[in-house]
Amino acid sequence: MAYPTCDTLIQSFNTTHRIIKMQTDGLTHADSLRQLPFRGNCLNWVLGHIIAGRDGVLKLLSESAVWGESETARYTSGSEPITGDKQALPFKKLLEDLDESQRRIMETLAQSSPEALSMQTERGEKTVGELVAGLHWHETYHVGQLELLRQLAGKDDAII
After folding, report:
1. Model confidence at 92: pLDDT above 60
2. Is 120 in a helix, a strand, or coil?
3. Which helix (H) or strand (E) holds 142?
4. Cα torsion through 103, 108, 114, 118, rounded to 10
5. Each residue of 54-91: pLDDT tens digit?
């Protein structure tokens, strides 16, 4: 059996999706734009970056992305920080797009075979499954940031 399995990836993406929803519950668009007092990015950018990463997962699984190039470019690694409302996608849209990415990833993984995850990528360095697992690890890094960004928005609570 190749690692990771479809079941392992489904469980992993379900876990981070649940935590993202918990950490964003009750927040507004304005909350998502609050800036850290040091170099970093706002919750809006972090959530958009997670969605952009999930689009990478969908592409690896030979599925269509949720976003187009212009949306992805706004939230990709190395993009300029979001410092105002005009630069950001609406928070509600981000949450809807997150749910859509979750739905697509779950459907695709549920229908995938172990052989599909074991396929070598074009570069031949890693399998599809290894790259998807790597993108999920990257997602967990950013999901951890959401706890602090939630507190920055004025929520004085413990989600986890």
Report:
1. yes
2. strand
3. helix 128-152
4. -100
5. 999 999 999 999 999 999 999 999 998 898 888 899 99
For a pLDDT cut of 90, what percent of the chain falls above it?
79
Instruction: Evaluate the omega torsion of the peptide bond into residue 4 and state whether it is cis, within 30 degrees of 0.
Output: yes
* Residue 79, domain member (yes or no): yes
Domain contains 112 = yes
pLDDT averaged over the chain? Answer: 94
Asked if the structure places residue 160 within a domain, the reply is no
For residue 24, the domain's CATH number is 1.20.120.450
From the DSSP assignment, how many helices (H) and strands (E) are in the chain?
Answer: 7, 0
Counting the structural domains of the chain, the total is 1
Burial 91-120 (b: 16+ CB within 10 A, else e): beebbebbeebbebbeebbeebeeebbeee
157 lies in some domain: no
With 0-12 CB in 10 A as exposed, 13-18 as middle and 19+ as buried, what is 48? buried
